[in-house]
Amino acid sequence: MLQPRTLAVTNSQQTLKLITSGRLTGLPHIVELRYTFIDGRFYAVAGNARSDWALNILKSGTGKISIGEIVYLVTATSETGVEKEKVLESFRRKYGPAIVNQWYRNAQMCIRLEPLGLPSKRGAIKGELQASTNFSEWRRKGIDYYQYVAEAFDSASEEYDYTISHNYINSWIRRRSISELISLTRPSDVLLEIGCGTGTEAIQISKRVARIVATDISEKMLHVLERKVFAKKYGKKITGIRARAAEISAVQPFLPNGKVRIAYSFNGALNCEPELYKVPEQLAQVIDDKGYFVCSIRNTLCLPETMSHSLALQFDKLAVRRTQPTMVSVGGMDIPSYYYSPAAFTRFFQSYFHVRRIIGLPAFLPPAYLNKYYLRTGVFRPFLEKVELAVGGWFPFNRLGDQTLFMFQKA
Description:
Elements: H1 4-10, E1 15-21, E2 28-34, E3 36-38, E4 41-46, H2 52-60, E5 62-67, E6 70-79, H3 81-95, H4 97-103, E7 109-115, E8 120-121, H5 135-140, H6 145-165, H7 168-182, E9 190-194, H8 200-206, E10 211-216, H9 219-231, E11 238-242, E12 260-265, H10 279-286, E13 287-298, H11 303-311, E14 326-330, E15 333-337, H12 342-349, E16 353-361, H13 371-374, H14 381-391, E17 403-410
Parallel strand pairs: 9-10, 9-12, 10-11, 12-13
Antiparallel strand pairs: 1-2, 1-5, 3-4, 4-7, 5-6, 6-7, 6-8, 13-17, 14-15, 16-17
């Protein structure tokens, strides 16, 4: 039986996340649902009997519920008749008649989600620069850096796609990055990706090239990629390999003649490589002469961030990137991440590569962890994004963004 204290707070939230496995793909499927909590059980209502989340959990019989830092393993049963009416009445008390009449008046399914014992607790999924541990505290634990970072991204893998896709700015950054990369590609290219995560970028880019060798240090991220490749029948298009950036030449046996014309790394994967100084030489071994390396890293100075916090009178957050490494939150764990100015990052590569282009990513819009504030700009968003596209590639704005996108060409 759940502890009374847990019961007291369980119904206080407005929504929960239900995590199921896709009945066809086996991939994590996450949906945010209104719910009610009655006699130690959760109940959710589906307006449509074909709702994926309901079909998924009824087929598998089990799933997970996430509410803040609390995670429950649950079994699922469909309810009808008196039990369903009891749930709808509880919904009316919790959310009000207007919401119930609008969304659930003709509800076709009511699902009982019964916890399998006591819940577990994990770190809350927070914004990137909302870590609660400082570097000194982390270092005193004596943890192996690569193992810890791999565990953090393992922890994030299940909700990674949901988190990125539900963040407008993150999605905008992804589209812009892919667009710049594709401007260089040819249909015959085999590409090398460093830090592929769950493979969302690789799957999109693979439609424009012959093949992608996608690497990551997280086993669970690669497992999600493998499930996507299997579900989409992309078996010959994408190969997932566990490797870290500082040892990327180890993947040469998987490359045609040991080299590629283009390699890429997006979304700050290189910020989690403390031996960054090794990466340019490693890349030089796997990239053809006059080939390209397109990558993005997080910047030590973000002008939109500074302006946003100044306008909000949050002066204590103006210098959050000043000290390196910067602690960031990934998958409910705090990890050290190394931010770089564009000039400092370029110096690592100057012996092997020339800079062909630098883009602020974004240079004018706020960083992704301030997404909810940006969404409040409403009808002004199209104008703001036109400004972003106009100034993002020009000095000095291209050096003052949350991230910086580099287009290097091998010397």
